[in-house]
Amino acid sequence: MKKIAPSILSGNLLNLADEIKLIEEAEADLIHIDIMDGIFVPNITAGWDIVEAIKSLTDIPLDVHLMIDRPERYIEQFVKSGADILTVHFEGSVHLHRTVEKIRELEASPGVAINPGTPIDFLSEILNYIDLVLIMSVNPGFSGQDFIYSSLFKIEKMRKIIRRRELETLIEVDGGIKALNIADIANSGADIFVSGSGIFKTDNYLETINEMRERI
């Protein structure tokens, strides 16, 4: 089943509870939360306190994406705060296998993300240990960027690798996803679609998410 994951920090943070209610009414499958540290990416967002606050407001699973340097320092806090899926970057973790195993030990679902400039093949050794691969289709750090269309080839290649190895690993795509391009991304093999401005900058979240599902 394909899943829609609104990226909540693209919403109106002054009315976070209202935004969550609206995406609940739109039957979003996941809530995506981007955590940025100003070091790994040139932006700063929030910490585990915002994850805990969102967890207290909803039963929708939380998909927490750590765009931070040396994420192994903080994974326990994020899982305890309510992360159901916890994704770290290939580029940000030196001891990636240890980090992934720690996430699973804490009973969260581990994912690994790669930036647009990182080849899919770099994930070969870690693929058997994770539940999710997150392919960044923009350079991480800021919402509202245009989708990098060469990402479609990376998605297709990853789908072929997963099938060949008979894995159940999900493919998540994040960056520049809108109703107008979501069908191309789905046809390339994606399972989870993260959308920030593509949902929160529209007038009606329910209509937007329904349109995305129809196009998928």
Describe this structure as you would to a colleague.
It contains 8 helices and 8 strands. It is α/β, with parallel strands linked by helices. The protein has a single domain, classed as TIM Barrel (Alpha-Beta Barrel), CATH 3.20.20. It has an 8-stranded parallel beta sheet. Helix 3 links the parallel strand 3 and strand 4. Helix 2 runs parallel beside helix 3. The mean pLDDT is about 95.
Task: Give a quick rundown of the structure.
Helix content is 33%, strand content 19%. It is built from eight helices and eight strands; from the N terminus they run βαβαβαβαββαβαβαα. Strands 1-8-7-6-5-4-3-2 form an eight-stranded parallel sheet.
Task: Record keyword descriptors for this entry.
eight-stranded parallel β-sheet, 8 helices, 216 residues, globular, TIM Barrel, alpha/beta
Domains (count): 1
CATH architecture: Alpha-Beta Barrel
Q: Indicate the overall shape.
A: globular
The value of Rg in angstroms is: 16 Å
Estimate the strand proportion: 15-25%
Element-level helix/strand string: EHEHEHEHEEHEHEHH
**CATH homologous superfamily grouping:** Aldolase class I
| Span of the ends, CA to CA | 11 Å
